[in-house]
Design goal:
mainly alpha; two-stranded antiparallel sheet
């Protein structure tokens, strides 16, 4: 270790020790005092070397929320608003720490073990915060990142086990539930032998394991899981399916697991059984709606995949297309237009899913006013008009709806001291693609800048191909999460409706699967 240098000043370590001591003692006043002191310090010190302080602040906001205390008061019963404010601040601090750790000043070999050590803790706690938002798929993404950096990091393993237990309670496919429980138990068990797992965490992980009966443990959870291998098709199909597996893009909750197994390489996600009036002859229209949402997602995913595949020569449809060379070095091709189409189509799924939500939960929003923002409002003003809806979605009564609500916040709400919503760039790009002109460049923009620029004096939005690919991949992940959440939200609602059933009779209706041979 003598060749390595700690880039973070001793002040960061001192604050970390003080925060740890206050947290271990559950000294709420000490935590609050430290938060004020540290945040005041950070207002005047923006150097990347103070990145660990953002981690400390974010973790402490999470501790207060977990203990049941708000920053402003000592009431043990936190209001929904107080919990959300604490979560927003927590997420902002972790994300600010991400940004600082990616600065070129810290990407040096001699700093590596110190930066890596902080990232392992940061990603784990950030995933925990996402879990608190109900965002299971997003949390699993960051738990996976931790295991990619260090496959033996016990805190990540234990938290994966805990998260998978929660996930399994929301999934309605019995086969998926069994798999999730098996992986959950074994991640929890493996974490107990890891030196980085402190005693209080071990006690909690043991408690999670003890929720299983001895019989289930002996007959199933302790047994080796027999997982069959499936063919992924011929070479081109296999390459595509492995790309989807690697990026965790299948509409299948099992594809959130760190393992990339062939049996997870299917879009098996579907809606749960639904209760309908006995006089209703036709199947619920929601199955047809969900079919369409899935198919549009799968098409957009394939277009994105094609954009990743390098072509040795232009597509035949691009040949003899007369374009003027203006020496501004844009990318013009079927491949690039496919990527733009994928981005636009993915974004449109949010509003179409909102149409589903409005009808299923009978919110009462007028057809022309439905979008992924308005479904969370109790009323919607347009000029002098004001529509009073029948119902208002209650995210806190349905954890999957809560996840969808927090995804909506990513595009529309500023967290902490952020200048813009976290996913604002995606929203701006979508607006430019739909209503303005976008030029995609290979590598560096026409003005020598990297990444992207807002609408310039030439009336174009400029972006590099790499940045467009990055945003489209991020959108694929978010839309996938949104669709999985939708099925889980319906599952929770259907269970509530079953519990509230009267003595009216109900009969099962069996629906056939749409055969692959018909998809021509």
């Amino acid at each position: 270790m003598e060749n390595f240098v700690n880039p973070f000043p001793k002040l960061c370590e001192d604050y970390a020790q003080r925060f740890d001591a206050a947290s271990d003692n559950r000294d709420i006043q000490a935590i609050k005092k430290l938060l004020i002191e540290t945040e005041n310090f950070l207002k005047n010190h923006s150097d990347v070397k103070y990145a660990p302080l953002y981690y400390c602040v974010g973790t402490s906001y999470g501790n207060l929320r977990t203990y049941g205390y708000s920053v402003k008061s000592d009431n043990t019963e936190l209001s929904t608003e107080e919990k959300d404010l604490s979560l927003e601040r927590e997420l902002f601090c972790f994300r600010r720490c991400f940004e600082l750790l990616e600065d070129s000043e810290l990407i040096k070999e001699e700093y590596e073990p110190y930066v890596l050590g902080l990232k392992l803790q940061l990603y784990t706690n950030y995933a925990n915060a996402l879990e608190a938002c109900g965002r299971k798929a997003a949390a699993m993404k960051f738990y996976r990142k931790v295991l990619e950096m260090n496959s033996k990091f016990g805190m990540a393993e234990g938290n994966i086990g805990r998260a998978l237990q929660h996930y399994s309670a929301l999934v309605h496919d019995s086969g998926h539930v069994s798999y999730l429980h098996h992986f959950a138990y074994n991640y929890l068990k493996d974490s107990l032998s890891k030196p980085d797992v402190h005693e209080s965490a071990k006690r909690y992980f043991k408690w999670c394991m003890n929720t299983y009966t001895n019989e289930i443990i002996e007959t199933f959870l302790e047994k080796k899981l027999e997982i069959a291998e499936y063919s992924l098709g011929e070479k081109s199909e296999e390459t595509y399916r492995r790309w989807c597996l690697r990026h965790h893009l299948f509409l299948n909750p099992l594809n959130d697991l760190p393992q990339e197994l062939s049996c997870f390489a299917t879009d098996s996600l579907h809606l749960p059984d639904m209760i309908t009036p006995i006089e209703q002859i036709e199947p619920p229209m929601y199955f047809a709606m969900f079919n369409q949402l899935k198919q549009e997602y799968v098409y957009a995913r394939y277009l994105c995949y094609e954009a990743f595949c390098e072509r040795e020569e232009p597509h035949f449809a691009d040949k003899e297309t007369h374009l003027i060379n203006l020496y501004d070095y844009p990318q013009y091709s079927i491949r690039i237009e496919g990527l733009k189409t994928a981005f636009r189509q993915l974004y449109s799924i949010f509003d179409k899913a909102a149409f589903f939500v409005n009808d299923y939960w009978d919110i009462g929003i007028h057809e022309r006013d439905i979008n992924y923002r308005t479904i969370w409002l109790s009323g919607y003003g347009v000029g002098k008009k004001h529509y009073e809806y029948k119902n208002k979605l209650m995210p806190d009564e349905n954890i999957a709806l809560k996840s969808m609500f927090w995804i909506h916040n990513e595009f529309n709400k500023r967290f902490g001291d952020a200048d813009n919503p976290y996913a604002k760039n995606i929203q701006v790009l979508r607006n430019a693609l739909e209503h303005k002109f976008v030029k995609v460049h290979n590598g560096i923009l026409y003005d020598g800048k990297q990444g992207e620029t807002e609408i310039g004096i030439d009336s174009f939005y400029h972006i590099t191909e790499d940045k467009l690919l990055q945003y489209t991949l991020e959108l694929l992940e978010i839309v996938r999460e949104w669709l999985i959440d939708l099925t889980m939200a319906v599952h929770i609602e259907e269970m509530k409706r079953r519990d509230g059933e009267t003595e009216e009779k109900s009969y099962p209706v069996f629906l056939m699967e749409f055969d692959d041979e018909w998809k021509v």
